[in-house]
Amino acid sequence: MVAALGFQPTPRPTQAQVARRFLSEVLRADYPAAYQRLAPEVRATLPPTAFATAAGPLRHLGQQRGQAVELYKLGTWLSEGGGHEPWFYRFSFASDSARRPPPVLLEVTFSDTTARQVLGFGIKNR
């Protein structure tokens, strides 16, 4: 009956979409929304005030370079023991699109390729 009414369940966002939304929220200083995207184990050790402090440098860069970002690279680093580091997405500021390589990258990490909660974030200077 539900299908007959044309109801379509909302598709689950992709990991790239989650990473982009998280960065967008941080760059707009919507820290409460961004904080909710963190993995439970991260929230357990990082109170909201500490998160806002840690996210401040990204917000500051967004004020300088603009809030538009573009996906630059995604992947994982293989470790010598055969394991892997967390899955990462790196974004560049759209204002840096003519510069290769971009001088600054914003990184969002996940525990693996199926996770939808943010494990970490930061700035990667080139």
**Relative strand content:** 15-25%
What is the residue-mean pLDDT, rounded to a whole number? 90
Q: Tally the beta strands.
A: 4
Low-pLDDT segments, ≥5 res:
none
Give the N-terminus to C-terminus distance in angstroms: 55 Å
Q: Could you estimate the helical fraction of the residues in percent?
A: 25-40%
Q: Count up the helices.
A: 4
Q: What order do the strands of the largest sheet run in, or round the barrel if closed?
A: 1-2-3-4
In N-to-C order, the SSE pattern is HHHHEEEE
Radius of gyration: 16 Å
| Shape category | globular
What class would the helix/strand composition place it in?
alpha+beta
Describe the protein in words.
By secondary structure, this protein is of the alpha+beta class. It is 34% helix and 21% strand. The chain has a 4-stranded antiparallel beta sheet, with helices on one face. The longest helix has 18 residues, at 48-65. The mean pLDDT is 90.
Reconstruct the topology from this structure.
Layout (H helix, E strand, L loop, with lengths): L14 H13 L3 H6 L3 H6 L2 H18 L3 E7 L11 E7 L10 E7 L9 E6 L1
Antiparallel strand pairs: 1-2, 2-3, 3-4
Gist of the model:
This protein has 126 residues and is α+β, with helices and mostly antiparallel strands.
